[in-house]
């Protein structure tokens, strides 16, 4: 696969130059599984693991282990394509991140978790009606703004607005009140309305990540944009419709048009106090009517 289709550009190539001189290969992290990583290089998909040094030192360039979307340096000569079995490739280093979607891990500590790296667009996905929690949406928007990538709001399941006694225009106004100046789109994966507008945001070689609560419709949106079922999903409870599906792990997927998407599991918590430092863009006063109770 051409690296440019994975988001590789001159900036990453410059950072990789010392490793290239040593005979290493670049690859991008597509998924993380117990004990290892799935990466994509020019030769295709590879299973990979960290070298002992990187595992203990967290890498010479960034803190923490590689995240989905990271560019990594594979030790020369190590590894074979994942579908052929064999020993995994060895990740020698992680290149500096251009952007990072980060949350504080739940609990009293201040540890941070990188949800996705090197993304160009952060799509905050919310469903209509009572499924929208304004405080949660604001926290997700804070995470999006801190990432360094462009934030966009997506109202998924727009066809269900009448079920909640509302309409798309009202829901978009509520989202606009939560995030003044942030672009918002309404989408129905059932009817297809709005899909073209969202697809137009996704350009070849660019990476978007979807953030939102469990059951907001992120995985369904990815599959509709891809035109086929790319993501494995698991069942989650939905008191209104009986069941729904939700992503069980973060993973990078390629769309037919050349764009890349990272879906994330539903985020139950972002860590206490996480939103304060990232909400300056949304601090305009709002009336009680503009906040959903």
Beta percentage is: 25-35%
Q: Alpha-carbon distance between the termini?
A: 49 Å
Q: Please report the total strand number as a whole number.
A: 15
Radius of gyration equals 20 Å
Q: Unreliable stretches, pLDDT < 50, 5 or more residues?
A: 58-62, 78-84, 232-248, 268-293
Oligomer: single chain
CA-based shape: elongated
What's the overall average pLDDT, rounded?
78
- Sheet bearing the most strands, described? 6 strands, mixed
How would you sum up this structure, described in words?
The strands form 4 sheets. Strands 10-9-8-11-15-14 form a 6-stranded mixed beta sheet, sandwiched between helices. A 5-stranded mixed β-barrel has the order 1-2-3-5-4. A two-stranded antiparallel ribbon has the order 6-7. A hairpin with a 2-residue loop joins β2 (36-41) and β3. With 293 residues, it is α/β, with parallel strands linked by helices. It is built from 6 helices and 15 strands. It starts with 9 loop residues before the first helix and ends in a 30-residue tail after the last strand. Helix content is 19%, strand content 28%.
List the helices and strands and how they pair.
Elements: H1 10-21, E1 25-33, E2 36-41, E3 44-50, H2 52-57, E4 71-74, E5 89-94, E6 100-104, E7 112-117, E8 121-126, H3 134-146, E9 150-155, H4 168-178, E10 184-186, H5 195-199, E11 207-211, H6 218-226, E12 233-238, E13 242-247, E14 251-254, E15 260-263
């Amino acid at each position: 696969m051409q690296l440019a289709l994975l988001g590789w550009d001159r900036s990453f190539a410059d950072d990789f130059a010392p490793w290239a001189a040593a005979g290493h290969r670049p690859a991008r992290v597509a998924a993380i599984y117990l004990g290892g990583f799935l990466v994509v290089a020019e030769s295709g998909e590879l299973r990979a693991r960290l070298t002992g040094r990187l595992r203990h030192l967290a890498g010479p360039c960034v803190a923490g282990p590689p995240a989905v979307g990271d560019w990594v340096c594979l030790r020369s000569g190590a590894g074979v394509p994942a579908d052929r079995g064999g020993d995994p490739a060895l990740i020698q280093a992680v290149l500096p991140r251009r952007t990072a979607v980060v949350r504080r891990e739940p609990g009293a500590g201040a540890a941070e978790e990188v949800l996705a790296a090197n993304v160009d667009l952060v799509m905050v996905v919310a469903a209509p009606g009572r499924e929208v929690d304004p405080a949660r949406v604001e926290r997700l928007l804070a995470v999006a703004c801190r990432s360094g990538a462009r934030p966009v709001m997506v109202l998924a399941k727009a066809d269900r607005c009448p079920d909640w006694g509302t309409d798309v225009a009202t829901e978009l106004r509520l989202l606009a009140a939560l995030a003044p100046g942030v672009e918002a789109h309404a989408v129905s994966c059932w009817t297809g309305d709005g899909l073209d507008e969202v697809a137009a945001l996704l350009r070849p070689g660019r990476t978007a990540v979807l953030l939102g609560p469990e059951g907001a419709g992120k995985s369904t949106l990815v599959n509709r944009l891809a035109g086929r079922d790319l993501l494995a999903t698991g069942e989650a409870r939905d008191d209104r419709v009986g069941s729904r599906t939700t992503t069980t792990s973060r993973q990078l997927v390629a769309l037919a048009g050349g764009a890349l998407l990272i879906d994330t599991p539903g985020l139950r918590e972002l860590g206490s106090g996480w939103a304060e430092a990232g909400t300056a863009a949304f601090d305009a006063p709002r009336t009680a009517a503009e906040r959903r109770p």
